[in-house]
Amino acid sequence: MLARIAARLCLLALAGALFVPSTLWAAAPPAAKPPPTVYVILWFDTEDYLLPASDDAARDVAAFLTKEGVRATFKVVGEKARTLLARRRVDVINALKKHEIGYHSNWHSVQPTPALYLANLGWDEGVAEFDRREGPGRADVERIFGQAPTCYGQPGSSWGPQSYGALNKWGMKVYLDAGSHVAFDGKPCYYAGVLNLYQLEHTVRADLNNAKLLSQTEDRFARARKKLLAEGGGVISIYYHPCEWVHKEFWDGVNFGRGANPPREAWKLPRQKTADETKLSYRIFADYVRFMKRFPDVKFITASEAARLYRDPARGKRFTKDELAAVARTVLATPEEVTFQTRGNLSLSASEVFVLLNDYVAARTAGRAPAHVELRGTPYGPTGRPVDLAAPVTTDASQFGRTSVDVADFASKQGRVPSAVWLGSKAVPPEAYLRALAGVALALLEGKRMPATVEVKAARLGAGKYVAADNPKLWGWVIFPPGHRAPAMMELARRQAWALKPALLDRGAR
Fold it and tell me: Is 360 helix (H, G, I), strand (E, B) or coil?
């Protein structure tokens, strides 16, 4: 009897262990996101190939950062790399190799600089010309430093949109510099498929020549850090030129100012700082770096690490029918305007919206009923002369469907949004077509038939406001010839805003 009671008690105890309340079996709550971090991207335009003391400066700055456990990005000019090799400065090369290497053009200020030779070229010709002129320098930097450059930034303000096409060709994922040609509210963005760290709200440089101003710079950094932490994290950009430690004037302004292009034998060395002035610059920089390192929520990153933190989760994603319907509704909710979209943890450029919706309509026209549409990449914006739409155009379902198939073929083979979308013999702007396309796609996604008639009305590219119109301030660099302007190039740049969208920080990335 006692044995049977004991056995029953054992069974009850076992049952208690097995039949756990269902609440304990519920799925664990999602892991909390890590606390926000402020990322400092510290980069150096390593360019002066005239003053030998600038070689020592590059080495010593790199060695100091290595000792401090800080990795920076050194954007090296092709001729600077070749000069280091010719001078047998293996010590400089080895010091910089412990950091990340970027690229800063082939000759920097030797005329013509990129904005000059790109100013009157179209997209394809400009991409090819940039590759022809700048590609050899990129290859030399990779050969001499033993690592492929991870980013590019233009010399001075000599910017051109065609350079992004060459960067994609090279497999370079980051544009790292400072300027106002593309200004996305001071935030990182994607432009033409490349992560654009260009005009950032928080760019906090310390004056290397005045120790009294350091406390003000530290206060600015502290305020920027506080603001970014409140926003969930972000980037502070800090840049220098190693030659700033040793010279009193920039090497290129002495030789190539206002469009000058003297022969090499006539190049002059810039005036050099005294030993005490150079020591002061090192001390200010060291104090500033050590100040930033005090904050546990501040982390130094390189260009490639920024690419991981701001990776684009939209690329390669398969968008479901429900997701496509939401994308189409967002297009229709913005009267007379097409622009990028932000959806949760990802964003879509107008060109990506264009191909997603068009691929779906083209597939339905071809008799398929896809459960999803994959985004294979970011198409460029239109590269040809835009067409006007003086009055709405009406077409029928058959023509609209055939046009969608033709547009899908164009986008797949050309990798861009067409400058004109042809509805038979009538050409309409891609902005107007996308607005009509969203309505057709939504009807099909909701299980309806394609409308018997489709009206195409005028629309504008809303994202275009983030690209500057041509103006003298864009070309204020001392190296430009007086009066340089580039209206055609900046209009081409504005059309590439089709491929502009926010770059969103992935707080889970490491």
Answer: helix
Residues near 424 by beta carbon (within 8 Å), at least 6 away in sequence? 395, 399, 403
E strand or H helix that includes residue 338: strand 337-338
* Token code pair at residue 99: 């950091």
Nearest to residue 403, comparing CAs of 383, 374, 424, 434? 424
- Mean per-residue pLDDT pooled into runs of 10, the chain (510 residues): 40 36 37 86 98 98 98 99 98 98 98 98 98 98 98 98 98 98 97 97 98 98 98 98 98 98 98 98 98 98 98 98 98 93 96 98 97 97 95 98 98 98 98 98 97 97 98 97 98 98 89
> How far out from the chain centre does Cα 461 lie?
20
Q: Do residues 331 and 73 touch, judged by C-beta distance below 8 A?
A: no
27: DSSP letter: P
What is the distance, to the nearest Å, from the Cα of residue 156 to the centroid of all Cα atoms in its chain?
18
Q: Tell me, what amino acid is at 112?
A: P
Count the Cβ atoms, other than its own, within 10 Å of residue 91. 13
Residue 68's H or E segment, with its range, is helix 53-68
- What is the maximal distance between C-alpha atoms in the chain? 113
Report how far residue 508's alpha carbon sits from residue 505's, in angstroms, rounded to the nearest whole number.
9
How far apart, in whole angstroms, are the C-alpha atoms of residue 254 and residue 479? 10
Structure tokens at 384: 């040809």
Cα gap 84→58, rounded to integer Å: 11
Distances (CA, A) of 345 to 14, 206, 348, 350: 46, 34, 11, 17
pTM value is: 0.93
Beta pairing, strands 453-456 & 151-152? unpaired
Cβ-based burial of 97 (10 A; exposed 0-12, middle 13-18, buried ≥19): middle
**Token output for 149:** 């450059």
Q: Are 145 and 96 in contact (CB under 8 A)?
A: yes
Spatial separation of the C-alpha atoms in residues 263 and 265, rounded to whole Å: 6
